[in-house]
Specification:
The protein is of the alpha+beta class and 188 residues long. It has 8 helices and 5 strands, in the order ααααααββαβαββ.
């Protein structure tokens, strides 16, 4: 079954950003038709196929057809437990860079339209906000999703007035905080 196909993959064959991108590229009608868990399963299958761990023929047949060139040994319980502290840790405090922006500084989200994965929401592009806090240096998801390296950058919490994002019909009291990387921002 699919569990046997998935179990023969190596640990960390893909990353969280690659998994997000696999969902983002689903055709819109397919995306809207699928439940959360169907999207989750589809992204796992797509990542396994892209990494050469399994073929589409094996998925269709629901069985292993040929040994995977990327097959690795199964993790022991101890090995799996040892990886737990590393999961979800994208902070890179050792990167030697200087923050481009400081708390209180006005910034503009770049109006860019990348073809790959990005965490820069369309509704914030070209909009002006204020740096609320400097979060530190983190893995850059746009390159990490495509296995082009982590390319750590400073991450900022940026406060946008709701009216800046959605116009005069938004409440003047409301704000939205968005975490944005250096590459997404410019001085306003």
């Amino acid at each position: 079954a699919i569990n046997n196909l998935v179990s023969r993959s190596q640990w960390n064959t893909w990353n969280i950003d690659a998994r997000r991108f696999a969902i983002e590229v689903l055709p819109p009608a397919t995306y809207l038709r699928m439940s959360y868990y169907e999207k989750w399963l589809e992204r796992i299958v797509e990542c396994l196929v892209q990494q050469g761990v399994v073929t589409r023929e094996e998925i269709a047949a629901d069985r292993v057809i040929a040994p995977s060139r990327k097959q690795g040994p199964a993790l022991s319980v101890e090995q799996a437990e040892a990886t737990m502290p590393m999961r979800g840790d994208f902070l890179r405090p050792d990167a030697k860079t200087v923050a481009s922006f400081q708390a209180g500084e006005q910034v503009r989200a770049r109006n860019v339209h990348p073809t790959g994965h990005t965490r820069l929401p369309r509704y914030a592009r070209g909009k002006v906000g204020v740096i609320d806090r400097v979060r530190g240096i983190f893995v850059f998801p746009d390159t990490n999703a495509h296995f082009q390296g982590e390319q750590p950058q400073y991450l900022y919490s940026v406060k946008f007035a709701a009216r800046e994002l959605w116009g005069e019909s938004a409440s003047p009291r409301d704000s939205v905080y968005i975490d944005l990387w250096d590459s997404y921002l410019e001085h306003a």
